[in-house]
Task: inverse folding
């Protein structure tokens, strides 16, 4: 692989105009796709195979009109202090407000709260449900403005009016102040790490090209594949983070090769052949982990994984082709000013014959830290492991759920409407449960009886529905059960049960299981099927399915990590150490998520106003994404260590050399990735906000604690044993040559002579 990538790097350098033109054309097509492609619709999460999803599918079949997916708004009215909504003046205001909406463009219906009983017991709060003939994404600005204007006019009369439901929900785009801050931080880190505006700009430019193309593809496929804004934002987040990092790694290696005396084209080839090999491996691990999210069985999670995987694949392609092409365009300006001055001084007629500085001449913080770890490996190892373990302790209290209006800012009208409805009708009103009674088998029996028993059988169907309603009312925690609604064929009934507790509370979760347990015997006794569904029940089922899938998915990811790292490093203990470190960093990230989003620690600092369960998709997303990113740092840092070790250096000095060559670059890459992920914390979308916190903390723990503290400390304690591999595995495992050993015949003379004098260890043999 190293040889193939070496040739690709040299070809891209030589054919830089062709390569640049091809990527420019792809970028222009992506811009056009974003401009002309219709926006994808925000779809509800589904979980095939769960009871709640089966009930939703049954309702779609038996109640095709009432179970439509049109947008809905709840106009919530509250009377001034000392007044009631039943007062004549307030009733007139409500009537006028609804009258201005009823019959309007895209409005299907508007209910009268005084006819439907939608007035609280104390008479202070009432609500009307406005149903639209179009989905939220298809509502026109005129329709939305009419709703807001109607609420504003009612508010001018003295009523408090808030708007809930899905009608005003909007997709949050990828742009924003906090994301820009993250990119600015990344740019500053690049400039400091590379010492060159051109080199820093090159990394940013190539990352933006990959991200723009990925975003264009997601936009173009949004409608055909049903991709949501969350998929686009995840692709943007991952593509930007790994795109900058991959370009940084190859650029850093190119500069090192130039410092060793390689000509530009040769340096570009060797940079892609060595650092590019690590980029391919790291990108492949991220790609596999993201595509593997499809095994969980949630369509939205599968789409997010595929979108993110596509963005990562594009970042790898850009790094392997466009980055070396830009080396040819920018020439010596990719080097730092100091390196250019040193090279000029060594030329004939230069001011002074100072040798060009090589990576080995540097003695920075990374080298001092590596030597500190070598002197105190036990203390560093114990401190890091115990520290991450303590941070991970809150993860034992992890609760999963899906955010609703209660997680939004109190500055939004949706959240204020939610609070008013909870105040007037109880906390469970915002999360009603739907009990579906399927008596189709009884109805078939009744149809087959062509005699006088028809009426008796039909009465049995009604009796079954009444018995289910009575049973549900008797379950502790149920506030009320509405009258049954029958389908057109009279073979399916729907009951609405309102819990006494809030949708995301543990009591409501227990209530769903209690209702299912209470009605479980009806199918055997009556032949009727009883299913509990609704948004609250669906969220509970999805959260439980995610919890059940967490351990198997983690096992697969850990197993994959051990296998891949065994192939790359031809070692048994290095992969095991890497896997255990990955578990520590992920566990600590989960602990932070619980502390912030469940317990409310430092929640005000990032704008979290309502604590509750952690977004149910987050643990598996964090595992899948961080797994690949953790392998990035493991490969880029340990590759240089192994490369030095197999040439005869002692294990301790190999660690120091690894930090000398890669420590600063890995640290810069981690800071960049943390900045990019943290830039999404300021978004109001709770899914993206939780993702930003989880990924930023996981990367911080994995890069700075696991890879830069635990890894060198463990390697120092293991010594030569760290690189041991049984003889049978050494014969069986393929040699992927991440270090670029196959490129030695291509090395320029000075570098080849330097390497030839170094004795080599026999690595990978017993």
Result:
């Amino acid at each position: 692989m190293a040889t193939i990538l070496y040739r690709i790097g040299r070809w891209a350098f030589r054919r830089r105009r062709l390569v640049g033109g091809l990527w420019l054309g792809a970028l222009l097509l992506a811009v056009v796709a974003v401009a002309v492609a219709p926006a994808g619709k925000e779809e509800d999460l589904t979980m095939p195979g769960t009871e709640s999803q089966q009930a939703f599918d049954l309702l779609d079949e038996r109640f095709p009109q009432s179970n439509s997916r049109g947008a809905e708004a709840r106009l919530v009215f509250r009377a001034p202090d000392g007044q009631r909504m039943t007062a004549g003046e307030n009733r007139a205001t409500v009537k006028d407000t609804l009258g201005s909406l009823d019959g309007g463009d895209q409005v299907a219906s508007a209910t009268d709260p005084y006819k439907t009983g939608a007035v609280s017991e104390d008479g202070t709060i009432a609500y009307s449900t406005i149903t639209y003939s179009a989905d939220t994404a298809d509502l026109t600005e005129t329709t939305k403005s009419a709703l807001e204007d109607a609420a504003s006019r009612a508010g001018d009369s003295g009523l408090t009016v808030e708007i809930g439901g899905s009608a005003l929900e909007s997709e949050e785009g990828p742009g924003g102040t906090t994301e820009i801050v993250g990119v600015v931080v990344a740019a500053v880190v690049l400039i400091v790490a590379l010492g060159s505006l051109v080199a820093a700009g090159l990394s940013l430019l190539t990352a933006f090209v990959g991200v723009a193309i990925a975003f264009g593809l997601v936009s173009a496929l949004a409608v055909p594949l049903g991709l949501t804004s969350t998929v686009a934002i995840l692709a943007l987040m991952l593509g930007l983070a790994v795109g900058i990092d991959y370009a940084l790694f190859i650029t850093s290696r190119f500069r090192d090769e130039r410092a060793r005396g390689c000509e530009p084209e040769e340096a570009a080839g060797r940079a892609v052949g060595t650092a590019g090999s690590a980029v391919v491996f790291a990108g492949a691990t991220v790609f596999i982990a993201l595509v593997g999210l499809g095994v969980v069985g949630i369509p939205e999670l599968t789409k997010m994984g595929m979108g993110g995987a596509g963005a990562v694949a594009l970042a790898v392609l850009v790094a392997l082709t466009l980055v070396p092409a830009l080396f040819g365009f920018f020439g010596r300006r990719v080097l730092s000013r100091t390196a250019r001055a040193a090279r000029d001084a060594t030329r004939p007629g230069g001011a002074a014959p100072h040798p060009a500085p090589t990576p080995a001449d540097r003695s920075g913080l990374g080298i001092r830290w590596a030597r500190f770890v070598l002197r105190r490996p036990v203390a560093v190892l114990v401190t890091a492991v115990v520290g991450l373990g303590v941070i991970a302790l809150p993860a034992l209290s992890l609760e999963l759920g899906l955010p609703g209006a209660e997680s939004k800012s109190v500055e939004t009208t949706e959240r204020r409407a939610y609070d008013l409805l909870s105040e007037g009708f109880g906390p469970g009103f915002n999360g009603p449960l739907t009990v579906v009674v399927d008596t189709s088998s009884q109805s078939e029996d009744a149809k087959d009886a062509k005699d006088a028993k028809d009426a008796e059988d039909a009465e049995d169907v009604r009796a079954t529905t009444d018995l289910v309603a009575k049973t549900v009312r008797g379950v502790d925690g149920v506030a009320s059960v509405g009258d049954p609604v029958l389908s057109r064929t009279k073979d399916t009934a729907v009951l609405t049960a309102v819990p006494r507790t809030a949708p995301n509370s543990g009591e409501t979760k227990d209530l769903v299981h209690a209702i299912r347990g209470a009605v479980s015997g009806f199918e055997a006794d009556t032949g009727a099927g009883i299913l509990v569904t609704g948004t609250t029940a669906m969220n509970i089922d999805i959260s439980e399915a995610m919890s059940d899938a967490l351990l198997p998915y983690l096992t697969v990811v850990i197993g994959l990590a051990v296998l891949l790292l065994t192939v790359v490093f031809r070692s048994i203990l290095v992969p095991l150490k890497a896997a255990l470190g990955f578990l520590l960093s992920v566990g600590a990230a989960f602990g932070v998520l619980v502390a912030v989003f469940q317990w409310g620690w430092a929640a005000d600092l990032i704008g979290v106003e309502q604590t509750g369960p952690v977004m149910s998709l987050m643990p598996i997303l964090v595992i899948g994404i961080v797994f690949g990113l953790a392998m990035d740092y493991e490969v880029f840092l340990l590759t240089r260590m192994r490369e030095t070790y197999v040439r005869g250096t002692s294990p301790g000095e190999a660690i120091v050399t690894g930090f000398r060559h890669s420590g600063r670059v890995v640290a810069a890459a981690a800071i960049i990735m943390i900045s990019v992920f943290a830039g999404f914390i300021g978004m109001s979308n709770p899914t993206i906000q939780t993702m930003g916190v989880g990924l930023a903390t996981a990367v911080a723990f994995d890069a700075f604690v696991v890879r830069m503290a635990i890894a060198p400390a463990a390697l120092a304690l293991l010594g030569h044993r760290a690189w041991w591999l049984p003889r049978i595995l050494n014969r069986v495992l393929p040699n992927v040559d991440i270090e670029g050993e196959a490129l030695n015949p291509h090395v320029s003379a000075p570098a080849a002579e330097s390497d030839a004098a170094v004795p080599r260890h026999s690595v990978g043999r017993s």
The mean pLDDT is 82.
